[in-house]
Amino acid sequence: MITTSLSAASRTFARVTPGALAHTGALLLLCGLASCTGSPATLALRPDFEVMTPAGIASVSIRESPLGMTDAEFTQSVRAGMERATDDSVITAPAESPFPSQRIVWHANIAPQRGVSRLMVNVFDGANPYAYEQDTIANDAPTAEVTSAVASMSERLLKDVAAQASTPDQPRRQVAQNEASQTTVSRR
Fold first, then answer.
1. Which ranges of the chain does DSSP label H, i.e. alpha helix?
2. pLDDT value of residue 168
3. Would you state the CATH architecture of domain 21-167?
4. Residue 96 pLDDT
5. pLDDT of 21-58, one tens digit each?
6. Distance between CA atoms of 63 and 141, rounded to whole angstroms?
7. CA nearest 82: which of 67, 104, 110?
8. Cα 166 vs. chain centroid, distance in angstroms?
9. Whole-Å CA distances, 125 to 26, 34, 37
10. pTM of the entire structure?
């Protein structure tokens, strides 16, 4: 009986292709990020700053900085790059609770042996990821280069957010508002 089960299992795994394994791994990684980043506890954390997007106000959080940059330096680079991309739509007042459920999360995956960091940014609506961009920078890139990469990624990301916000066949729902804002923001 055990031999039969092992044989059936080996036939099942024999049909799995490397491409399918890569897609499964990417899906599991994204689900892991979504469960961490979109959890109620994470959404309750004070964001680094907020920005107005085509879908309304979004909290912006920094999770991991590139090699050679402090968290404060990377946060400043992200803020400056997003200001460039959004025509100064970064909200300068300190974020107040309750924070918007839309969250933009920046992080870097460092590959010291290759000398590069992969910058990644995800947009979540609560626990649901719906937009993603990435780029690579040299680990010793000057701050201006990092800021420029963030601006370029932000422009692409905000186009994705705008497309998602303007999809007419999706039902819209009301989201929690930041108390600092008196405008009503609708999103899906």
1. 2-14, 18-37, 40-43, 71-85, 143-165
2. 55
3. 3-Layer(aba) Sandwich (3.40)
4. 81
5. 444 444 444 444 444 455 666 667 789 999 999 988 99
6. 19
7. 104
8. 20
9. 19, 10, 10
10. 0.68
